[in-house]
């Protein structure tokens, strides 16, 4: 496994197939970090989505995937797992003729499936980003099949680097764990924020005050995790005065089974990734 944070190479044309939440986050990250708008093309069936992407980022938006891939050597497949097979099958003749590097962000769907649906012998990268990509603060797990050469890996990494840090994964089976930890992970933090906010309000705080207190607490704690070089357990220890308020709360979380719950949640998310691959084969 290698981890890196690098700048994108904005030169080559990239086609996004699917212009929804994840594509918007990645396109936003690319444009914000200096990619030329005319090097980004996107296909989405919804006119409102196309119009919004064109207006917000200046990218060219098309109704058909076949139009979007025109001149693009990197294809970002950003549709739901449930429609990935149909999208790839439609694009297979183009993939066979043009030999792009196909980068899929779909949960679960394997590189073997993608290669097969695109007609075979395809350079496939699986990428699992997350929505903080929109701020350049995401993290992406990357896996490349054996058809991807060093230049293809470099291009895929450069593209995803506009979304934040990247981590190469050698064993594709671990991509389901990546999805469960970091792909879905922002939702877990947002859920915690919701729960803390509701609890603060229940304790009498005004809603606005509760939101500010929770947001800044999560932001500050995340920065400490990132910038202090200390392990999470050590940072927690320093907040926890013996016999104090934090201890009362942490003991409540521990006795309520927070760690086991987190393990089960992540196990279930990874299992769902495997199910998505099987159900959409
Ligand atoms: N959201 C997230 O945090 C993350 C998502 N992912 C992955 O990203 C992928 C997309 O997820 P997300 O962005 O949330 O989903 P969205 O539903 O927001 O985006 C998918 C988009 O693709 C469009 N679409 C459907 N069929 C086609 C087609 N044939 N050609 C082009 N576009 C099409 C959809 O249109 P319509 O709505 O009309 O169907 C929709 O606008 C998924 O595979 C998911 O697993 C990965 C990491 C994180
Ligand atoms: O919920 C999902 O299936 C996608 C994949 C990771 C985040 N969102």
Automatic annotation (TrEMBL):
Q: Which domain of life is it from?
A: Bacteria
Q: Could you tell me where this protein is found in the cell?
A: Cytoplasm
Q: Please write the reaction equations for the catalytic activity of this protein.
A: L-proline + NADP(+) = (S)-1-pyrroline-5-carboxylate + NADPH + 2 H(+); L-proline + NAD(+) = (S)-1-pyrroline-5-carboxylate + NADH + 2 H(+)
Every copy of the Pyrroline-5-carboxylate reductase catalytic N-terminal domain together lies at 13-108
Q: Which Pfam families match?
A: F420_oxidored (PF03807), P5CR_dimer (PF14748)
Going by the UniProt record, its keywords in alphabetical order are: Amino-acid biosynthesis, Cytoplasm, NADP, Oxidoreductase, Proline biosynthesis
Could you tell me the EC number(s) of this protein?
A: 1.5.1.2
**Which residue numbers delimit the Pyrroline-5-carboxylate reductase dimerisation domain?**
172-276
- A GO molecular-function descriptor: pyrroline-5-carboxylate reductase activity
The pathway that the record names for this protein is: Amino-acid biosynthesis; L-proline biosynthesis; L-proline from L-glutamate 5-semialdehyde: step 1/1
Entry annotated with the keyword Transport = no
Supply the InterPro entries for this chain: 6-PGluconate_DH-like_C_sf, NAD(P)-bd_dom_sf, P5C_Rdtase_cat_N, P5CR-like_CS, P5CR_dimer, Pyrroline-COOH_reductase
Instruction: Kindly report the protein's main subcellular placement as a broad class.
Output: cytoplasm
PANTHER family associated with the record = PYRROLINE-5-CARBOXYLATE REDUCTASE, PYRROLINE-5-CARBOXYLATE REDUCTASE 3
Q: What does this protein do?
A: Catalyzes the reduction of 1-pyrroline-5-carboxylate (PCA) to L-proline.
Family per similarity comment: Belongs to the pyrroline-5-carboxylate reductase family.
NCBIfam families, per database record: proC
Q: What is this protein called?
A: Pyrroline-5-carboxylate reductase
Organism of origin is: Luteimonas endophytica
Print the organism lineage: Bacteria, Pseudomonadati, Pseudomonadota, Gammaproteobacteria, Lysobacterales
């Amino acid at each position: 496994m290698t981890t890196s944070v690098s700048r994108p190479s904005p030169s080559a044309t990239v086609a996004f197939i699917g212009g929804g939440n994840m594509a918007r986050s990645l396109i936003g990250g690319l444009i914000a970090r200096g990619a030329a708008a005319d090097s980004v093309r996107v296909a989405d069936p919804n006119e409102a989505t196309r119009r919004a992407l064109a207006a917000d980022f200046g990218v060219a938006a098309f109704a058909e995937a076949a139009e979007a891939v025109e001149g693009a050597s990197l294809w970002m497949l950003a549709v739901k797992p449930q429609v990935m097979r149909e999208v790839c099958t439609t694009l297979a003749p183009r993939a066979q003729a043009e030999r792009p590097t196909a980068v899929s962000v779909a949960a679960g769907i394997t590189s073997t499936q993608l290669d097969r649906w695109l007609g075979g012998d395809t350079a496939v990268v699986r990428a699992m980003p997350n929505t903080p990509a929109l701020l350049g603060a995401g993290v992406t797990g990357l896996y490349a099949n054996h058809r991807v050469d060093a230049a293809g890996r470099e291009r895929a990494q450069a593209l995803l680097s506009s979304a934040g840090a990247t981590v190469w994964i050698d064993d594709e089976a671990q991509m389901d764990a990546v999805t469960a930890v970091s792909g879905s992970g922002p939702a877990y933090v947002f859920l915690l924020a919701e729960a803390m906010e509701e609890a603060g309000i229940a304790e009498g705080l005004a809603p606005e005050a509760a939101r500010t207190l929770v947001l800044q607490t999560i932001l500050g704690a995340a920065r400490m995790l990132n910038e202090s070089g200390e392990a999470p357990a050590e940072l927690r220890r320093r907040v926890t005065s013996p016999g104090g308020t934090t201890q009362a709360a942490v003991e409540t979380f521990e006795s309520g089974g927070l760690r086991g719950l987190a393990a089960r949640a992540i196990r279930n998310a990874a299992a769902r990734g495997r199910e998505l691959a099987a159900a959409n084969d």
